[in-house]
Amino acid sequence: MRRIPIFISLLLLAACSQESERTYTVDELIADEPLLSRTISNCCNNPGELRDTPNCRNAEAADGKLPLQNMRKALGG
Question: What residue numbers bound the domain in which 61 lies?
Answer without folding.
Answer: 23-77
